[in-house]
C-alpha cells in the first residue's frame, strides 16, 4: 500500500448529505413496509367529493403520518412537479388566481403553475391549477389541467379532466392514522385506467404519495446534493441544447462495443455541467482530460469552442471520427511528474488517476474537477475502505479525494451530477483555502511515486495474450 494512501491521509469522514441517521432510516423502512394499497383499476368504483361524483382509483391506509405531513408533500409537489413526473423539466408557478365567483370547497387555496417539458420540440407546456381543500372528512388537493380538450394533454399526463389526492381522517380522529386516496374526474366512464400505461401511472403515483408522506413524518434527509455548484436552470438549458446538437447522431453511429445510450448522454450531461461551471467566471479556460477513454467529452468541449486535450493509455476506434481538431493523445501517464499545461484538470471516472488529479492540478497551477469511480490509492492499487455508519464506501472514497484536495490547499466543493451513473459526485477545486507549498505537495507526491504502477495498456495485454497463445500452439505442435 502506498505511504501516501490511507496511512497518511486523514481517515475518510461522513460528508453531510452522504450521511444518514440509521435509527430514523430503520423507522422509515419499517413504515414503507406497511404500504398495502387497494387499487380499483379493473372495475369502476365511485366516491363523492367536492359536491360531485368522482372515480376512486386507489386507497392505502397510513399510520405513520397525518394531514400536516400530507400537506407538506403537496407543497413540494406543487413547486416541483418534475420530482414525480420525470418528463417535466421544471415547474413555473405563475400566479395565485382569485377564486371570486367560483363555487369551491371551504378553506380553499389555489396555485396556477406551468409544467415545462423536457422534449420541447415534441411536447407543449401545460398550465395547471392546484387546488387545496379542507373538508370535514380530510384534506384534498386537485390537479386541474387548463387546455383545450384531452387531445392537448401531454403524453405523460393522466387521461382525465382532473385528478385529486386526499388524506382522509381515521374514524374517531386518531392522530397519525388515516387513509390516502387517489381520485379522478374521468373524461368518459372507465377511461382513467383503460390501458396498462395509465394503470401504471396511478400505481406509481400512489406509491410515491405514500412514501413521501411517510418521509415527511420522519423528516426528509437529502441523500444527494444537486444544483449547489451549478444552478439547475442554466444546466438544464445547456443540456437540452447539447443533447439536440449531438445525441441522435452519436447514439446512432457509435462505433464502440460500449452502450451509446449511457456514454453519449452521460458525457453530454458532464460537458453541459462543466460549461456552466466555467461560464460562471466569464472565461473560456483550457482543459486537460486525464484518462479520457473514448474521448467523447473532449470532442464535445472542443466542439463548443473550448481548447484542450485528452490523454489515455490506448487510442480508441472512435477517435478517428472526431476530426483532427480534437486533440487526443495515446500515452502512459506518469502522474507523479506530469504537468497538465492547462487551466483545468479533469478526471472523469479516471480510475487510478483520480486521486492524482488534485495533486497534478496543484503542481500545474490549475483548478480541477474529478468524478471518482472505483477506489484507487495514489499507488494505483485498489484501496480498502471502511465506511462510517450510514455512509457508503463510495462516499468514503469521495472523502479520501476531498482530503487530498485539502492537503493541496483547495477548498473542495461537491455536487451530485445528473448523470446515468451511481458514481456521480463531482469534487471541484477552484478556490484555495491556503497556498500549499511546493515542498508539501512534492512530499505527498514523492511518498507515492515509487509505488505507483500504471495500468497495462490494452494493446500490451493483447500482445501478451497472443504471445501466450502462440507459445501454447508451438508446444502442442512439437513432436
TrEMBL record:
The entry's keywords: Methyltransferase, Transferase
Methyltransferase among keywords: yes
Top enzyme category: transferase
EC number: 2.1.1.211
Entry protein name: tRNA(Ser) Um(44) 2'-O-methyltransferase
Organism name: Coemansia nantahalensis
Lineage: Eukaryota, Fungi, Fungi incertae sedis, Zoopagomycota, Kickxellomycotina
Gene: TRM44
